[in-house]
Amino acid sequence: MASTSPESAAATETDGSIQIRRLELADHERGFVSLLSQLSSCPDLTASEFAARFTELAAHGDDHVILVAEDSSAQERRILATGCLFVERKFLRGGGKVGHVEDVVIDATARGKGLGLRVVRRLVEIAREAGCYKVILDCTPELRAYYAKCGFVEKGVQMAVYF
Ligand SMILES: CC(=O)SCCNC(=O)CCNC(=O)[C@H](O)C(C)(C)COP(=O)(O)OP(=O)(O)OC[C@H]1O[C@@H](n2cnc3c(N)ncnc32)[C@H](O)[C@@H]1OP(=O)(O)O
């Protein structure tokens, strides 16, 4: 999750100049919130609002992992991609765990280069390492092919109540 603790799941992965790592508090200054606005409504947060939510999520430790990607060769540090894994602890299946992938978004300038695939595959690996027996997500029909490339198969029906 949003933690820099050395005990937390080792999420860092580097391929070329793109590094995938866990969210840091300083990512507020690196465009993390505006990147999320490419996915859904995401008004800017003040530094203290961001820090409050970061701290709240960090309390979940490895049950809430937010990955980000940045280009280490770029002059300005900007977040190019993100994705989240939430681990749900159940009584079912002998106290099994389910991974939920949420809030996957790649900056418009960085799409079509395999970064989305890398972020989601890393989230799935982390879920497997955490002992989850499955990983699930909700998406629009247009994204079926993308998530199929990430290893997902279609299962069930998505239902929602919006407030
Ligand atoms: C659970 C959720 O969060 S659902 C929300 C997902 N996020 C969004 O819709 C936000 C806006 N979109 C994006 O951020 C990006 O376009 C993403 C995340 C959908 C894809 O990220 P990208 O980095 O562009 O994908 P990437 O380059 O890794 O593509 C991997 C493969 O999926 C395919 N693919 C990517 N996007 C799509 C798409 N929209 N439809 C069909 N196939 C796709 C690519 O062609 C590629 O296939 P290939 O390996 O055969 O060439």
Automatic annotation (TrEMBL):
Alphabetical UniProt keywords: Acyltransferase, Endoplasmic reticulum, Membrane, Transferase
Reactions listed under catalytic activity: D-glucosamine 6-phosphate + acetyl-CoA = N-acetyl-D-glucosamine 6-phosphate + CoA + H(+)
UniProt keyword annotation of Acyltransferase present: yes
Membrane-protein topology: Peripheral membrane protein
PROSITE patterns given in the database record: GNAT (PS51186)
InterPro entries the UniProt entry points to: Acyl_CoA_acyltransferase, GNAT_dom, GNPNAT1-like
Cellular component GO terms, alphabetical: endoplasmic reticulum membrane
Residue spans crossing the bilayer: none
EC number: 2.3.1.4
UniProt-annotated location(s): Endoplasmic reticulum membrane
Any one Pfam family match given in the protein's UniProt record, by short name: Acetyltransf_1
GO terms for biological process, alphabetical: N-acetylglucosamine metabolic process; UDP-N-acetylglucosamine biosynthetic process
A GO molecular function held by the record: glucosamine 6-phosphate N-acetyltransferase activity
Pathway(s) this gene product operates in, as recorded in its UniProt entry: Nucleotide-sugar biosynthesis; UDP-N-acetyl-alpha-D-glucosamine biosynthesis; N-acetyl-alpha-D-glucosamine 1-phosphate from alpha-D-glucosamine 6-phosphate (route I): step 1/2
Occurrences of domain N-acetyltransferase (ranges): 18-163
Predominant place of localization: endoplasmic reticulum
Assembly, per entry: Homodimer.
Family to which the UniProt record says this protein belongs: Belongs to the acetyltransferase family. GNA1 subfamily.
Name of this protein: Glucosamine 6-phosphate N-acetyltransferase
